[in-house]
Amino acid sequence: MLQFRRASAGANAHCRRRREHGDWHAAAERSLFNRMNSGLCHCLQKLEHFDEQSAFPTPSLVVAA
């Protein structure tokens, strides 16, 4: 999972958010694996390509006008 976290900004952000909310390293990695696994399973069932943006959406920044 470490290589996937390095290559994917969304996956890395997911793990960092989990760690900031109090998860231990192993729990954050397990959460990432489960999320990636469910996304890949969905892609195989629907015959679609894996889309990182839909699997690990980045929170949009709200700018006050």
Distance N terminus to C terminus? 40 Å
Determine the mean pLDDT.
Answer: 79
Strand content range: under 5%
Radius of gyration: 13 Å
Structural class determined from secondary elements: mainly alpha
Please estimate the helix content.
55-70%
Order of helices and strands: HHHH
Q: Tell me about the biggest sheet?
A: none
Q: Poorly predicted ranges (pLDDT <50, ≥5 residues)?
A: none
Strands, count: 0
Q: Supply the number of helical segments.
A: 4
Shape: elongated
Task: Please describe the structure with a list of short key phrases separated by commas or semicolons.
65 residues, mainly alpha
Structure description:
This protein has 65 residues and is mostly helical. It has 4 helices and no strands. The protein has helices at 2-7, 9-20, 25-46, 52-55. Helix 2 crosses helix 3 (25-46). It starts with a helix and ends in a 10-residue tail after the last helix.
Offer a quick outline of the entry.
The protein has 65 residues and is an all-alpha fold. Helix content is 68%, strand content 0%. The chain has 4 helices and no strands.
SSE blueprint and pairings:
Layout: H1 2-7, H2 9-20, H3 25-46, H4 52-55
